[in-house]
Amino acid sequence: MLAALFEELRPTGGRVASPLHDAERLAQALGVDPAWGRLLVKGDHNLPVGGSIKARGGLYAVLEVAERVAEAAGLLDAGDYGVLASATARRTFGRHRVVVGSTGNLGLSVGTMSAALGFATTVHMSSQARAWKKERLRAHGADVVEHDGDYELALAAGREASLGDPRSFFIDDENSLVLLYGYATAAAELADQLRRAGVLVDERHPLFVHLPCGVGGAPTGIALGLHQRYGRSVHCLFAEPVEAPTVLAQLLAPEGTHPTVYDLGLTASTEADGLAVPRASMAAAKIARHVADGFFTMTDAALLRYVHLAATTGDFKLEPSAAAGFSGPAMLGATAAGTAYLEHSGTAASLTQATHVVWTTGGRLVPPDEHAAWVERGRLGPPPSGADHPQEGAPR
Ligand SMILES: *Cc1c(COP(=O)(O)O)cnc(C)c1O
Asked: Residue 351 pLDDT > 70, yes or no?
């Protein structure tokens, strides 16, 4: 069905998947010491359809709505899901609306999928959302509503507009297990790729996965899937901007509270617009408590430096959010907090045999001139390898 809807999915038979890259040159440029293990890149920055990791969760969430609507209309009685791409299904979907709030990337994935199936679509965008994302969505036939405020405001407006309309479905990034399940499927994909690449993962060959984190749905879903697969041999580290450590703040907060980063005197404002959110998804945070093994933060200057290095030595086209994971190996290998983590988790002795997977999460659809501007700004960044990160006060 997906292959029928999207030409770019024909080569994979409809599967939304990304390659796993060996990134030796980039590792060298980043100052990743080979004694810390081997560096691989999971290339979700190049995912088809949505152009970001949201193509996993967002597409899945829209398909779940489509399934419910089609089931209620009796379209799935024969059990053939290909029918979801038919003209009959299109007419049925056209009487329903999919609504989503977004800083940009979730809107792009949800809006593209939902419009392709024939749903009426409204995307509420926050002030951080880039103009090209709005234009692209409008070209797909989605209604884009622009809001002056932050991401929470856009989300609240979407939720409000959708409430009380039984023909409207709100995809709720602040509280959705469905999105999280869509992300979780990536774990099986990665496990398969590691196996085919002959990468061992066991107690003496730990796997460290470095995951950019916004509201927490994507990293938590992936971490959930990976822990089911690898148990204690996998270590999922969440990468958050200095000004927007939402899931960390949630896990450190007293039971029953749901703080914003504003409450901590932070701004939630960062070049990483995909991560520029003031507070965690509660649904994600409840699970993250069990599957997030550690957290680190990074500055915008570091992100731009990584975007630059990824473009010049790895040929990866990344947006700043997508590069957040690159701090991870050095945070583990070269900071006091990292050493403490390695000792605490019993992995200090096996670090040399470790594999690091840095998950890159978006960039494919970014206009070339915007990407070039980031690459230029990152040309003279701070030294790579995490040396710009405070060693004291790093979260434990
Ligand atoms: C949304 C997003 C993330 C993080 O996903 P959350 O579910 O918000 O934690 C990471 N990178 C990019 C590029 C994103 O758009």
From this structure: yes
